[in-house]
Amino acid sequence: MELKRYIGRRLVQIFVIFFVILTVLFLLFRLAPGDPVSRMVDPNLTPEDAALLIKEFGLDQPLLMQYLYYLKNFFTGHFGFSFHYGQPVVQIIWNRLPNTILLFTTSIILSALVGIFLGKIASWHKGEKTDICMTLGALVTHTIFLPWLALIMIWVFAYKLGWFPITGMITVEIWLDPQAGLWTKALDVLYHMTLPLATLFLIHFGSYLLIMRSSMLDTLKEDYILTGRAKGLSEKVIRDHHAAPNAALPVVTSVGLSLAFSINGGALTETVFTWPGIGRELVFSVSHNDYPLAQASFLLIAIVVLLSNLVVDILYAYLDPRIRY
Question: Tens digit of pLDDT for each residue in 44-64?
Answer without folding.
Answer: 666 666 667 666 666 667 778
